[in-house]
């Protein structure tokens, strides 16, 4: 179970109900889940599938995530899955990940996780972009 960072909440964010595909609900990526009222939340919250109950984005669980990464501000949602950091970008804001401070943070995350065999993948619609660590001048 992941721990929620004190002071953080989903509030009016519904990106986890919109951006990912959710096979258990036959929900394709970038579509609103049939159980979601955007800006309000899950309409079947008490009876939602376990995979939904278990999910928290990285901003909710990682104290090191800067306030700029709050999903409704960033227009993207970040989560970890095994050795991969996955970033799902709101298709209405396809360039969000390239803006400061996001691109710099993504490159730093890629550098940090590269040594352990991990990687950072950004999804914008059907396009997947592997973020390469920035080569630092010494």
Describe this structure in words.
It is a single chain. The protein is 19% helix and 20% strand. The protein has four helices and six strands. The strands form two sheets. Strands 3-4-5-6 form a four-stranded mixed beta sheet. The termini are far apart.
What key attributes describe this structure?
138 residues, alpha+beta, 4 helices, 20% strand, globular
Summarize the entry for a quick read.
The protein is built from 4 helices and 6 strands; from the N terminus they run E-E-H-H-H-E-E-H-E-E. The chain is of the alpha+beta class and about 140 residues long.
The largest sheet, given as strand count, sense and whether it forms a barrel, is: 4 strands, mixed
Integer-rounded radius of gyration: 15 Å
Number of helices: 4
Our measurement of the CA-to-CA distance between the termini, rounded to an integer number of angstroms, reads 40 Å
Low-confidence stretches: none
Helical fraction: 10-25%
What is the residue-mean pLDDT, rounded to a whole number? 92
Structural class: alpha+beta
What's the shape? globular
Strand content: 15-25%
SSE pattern, N- to C-terminal? EEHHHEEHEE
Q: Quaternary status of these chains?
A: single chain
Order of strands, main sheet, comes to: 3-4-5-6
Count of β-strands: 6
């Amino acid at each position: 179970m992941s721990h929620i960072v004190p002071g953080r909440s989903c509030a009016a964010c519904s990106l986890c109900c919109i951006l990912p595909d959710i096979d258990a609900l036959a929900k394709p990526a970038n579509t609103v889940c049939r159980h979601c009222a955007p800006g309000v939340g899950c309409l079947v919250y008490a009876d939602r599938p376990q995979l939904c109950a278990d999910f928290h984005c990285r901003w909710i669980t990682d104290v090191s995530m800067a306030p700029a990464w709050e999903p409704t501000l960033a227009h993207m949602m970040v989560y970890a899955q095994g050795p991969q950091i996955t970033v799902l970008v709101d298709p209405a804001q396809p360039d969000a990940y390239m803006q400061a401070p996001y691109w710099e943070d993504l490159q730093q995350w890629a550098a940090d996780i590269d040594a352990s065999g991990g990687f950072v993948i950004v999804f914008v619609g059907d396009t997947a972009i592997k973020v390469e660590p920035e080569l630092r001048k010494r």
